[in-house]
Amino acid sequence: MTVFVPSDLDSGPGANPSPDVDEAPGTSLWKGAWHRLRRNPVAILGAVLVLAFVLVAILAPLLAPYAPAATQWADEVTPSGVPGPSDEHLLGLDRYGSDLFTQLIYGARQSLIVGVISTGIGLSAGAVLGVLAGGLGGKVDLVVMRLVDIMLSIPSLLLAVSVAAVLGQNRYAVMIAIGAAQVPIFARLLRGSMLSQARSDYVLAASALGLRRRTIVMGHVLPNSMGPTIVQATLNLATAIIEVAALSYLGLGESDPAVAEWGRMLVAAQDRFSGSPQLALWPGFAIAVTALGFTLLGEALREALDPKQRR
Amino acid sequence: MLRFALRRLALMVPVLVGLSILLFLWLRALPGDPARSLLGERATPQGIEQINELYGFDRPLYEQYFIFVGRLLQGDFGESIQTGQSVVASFFDRFPATIELALAALLFAVLLGVPLGYLAAKRQGGFVDTAVVTGSLLGIVTPVFFLAILLKLVFADWLDWFPTSLRADARMDATHITNFYILDGLITREWDAAWDAILHLALPALALGTIPLAIIVRITRASVSEVLHEDFVRTAESKGLQQTTISRRHVLRNALLPVVTTIGLQTGLLFSGAVLTETVFSFNGVGQFLFEAIGSLDYPVLQGYILFIALLYALINLTVDISYGVIDPRVRT
Asked: Which ipTM was obtained for this model?
């Protein structure tokens, strides 16, 4: 199957964004990246894990054998032990007498929603700051970057914990808290890649043609600077899912007991740990495998978008 | 070199001032009333008024801020509302625990990470390489607290090789001079106390060091493999230099630059991880105390601790920048 596409001769300067990609001249960066992604087993593994996670999250009501947080088996849980796997319960019960498998599946839903929205918050706020700094330069750049420096000088978990402490214990607070911690990362990244794009020949060409600065920044520099940002967003989804669990672990997460959440499942499992380690192992593995999926996909994307970085 | 260092130092000032303002406003936005949280159920209107007057909570915000900064400049960070202990004293009481933990974790990560990354880069695609790449990926995606819980379960609860929590055995009657327990044991020649402290430190340090280890391995591997393909390495080989000389003077020296930056960047991560690790192992460090301070809205403690940590973080990054100049004279400007 041919993926190389002949160049579109009618398009003006800037339409052909990647003069230094090692493909045939005229192949767009994204087409080339897609071509490389499909041949990369790491990307495929990552994509499969991510897809499985998203499907489980969306189809949770169809996949789960029982209703979420149904505790009708509570009397089967005794102080000495929690029932393990059986015919009715694939992974056994949790310490409150709910079906562990059901809770795990609904936990994916919570992780996906909080992870995507918080990364979205971090990405959009960071993008605004980054575009302001990278696009306007000068004093704006100086002020915005000092603000970013301040945000970066607080360890991210601490930032998230203080946001969660102000906004209270609910899922919106968690989303904003984790998103806020990502803002400086995106801002700095986008500014950096915009600055490096600003020195390229096509920007010179565009300004020589008399295009307005806003058109150059928004129409040419920004689209070409998005690659690293998209890679970072994929990687940050993994971090966000881990941090959701960490905040829950510290007692600052979702407080509604009817919502299944992997981090809280881990906390609840702690005092039953020696007798029933499976209560902690399953949610722990779920977090790690999901994070692995996003990390693999993100790194494969990075390689695909920047072939020079490949080993 | 000196001018470079001084300029970097001057750049820190606006950042710290901005941080102190933001932090001050931010903490005032926290819900709840510190006076009420201090007095608990016995709170009377008079009592609350008294506390507010005592700590200056009844004055205008800007006045509170200037009083706060004025005191800061004299090294007075106020007292904890909960315990009445001076913030500076309580910080330095607990700080050694966190430093000890972070240093042990970093030492573990660097001593294991740099050689492993180097070996992996030298024999790419080999067994060591595959194991290192897979292992480091697993290290990055495993949540710190999950790893801490796992280590505690396996090595403390089941195998009983290590203690489950705290910094020292309660029965251990050790003399503490510096509050670095291992160092104290060595200074006073109380070998059993030093050994006891090492045993208590082992699992938390292992849990905390895993993510930095994974990151350092990857950066070292990538950086070494890039340098190995440089022209100057080929030149060194073709003029017949010994392998060890090439490795030491040409490859490692050039490859370590990004590794040093990464180690500097790990401090923030180490601190975030320390809050979680200290909570799992009840390690009694700054992280655990800070977490408790958030729960009880202890403003002076929160302000002081976060400022201290930010200052420290900035200083470490400054050191990293300067050590850049030492490793690579080209960046000295």
From this structure: 0.74
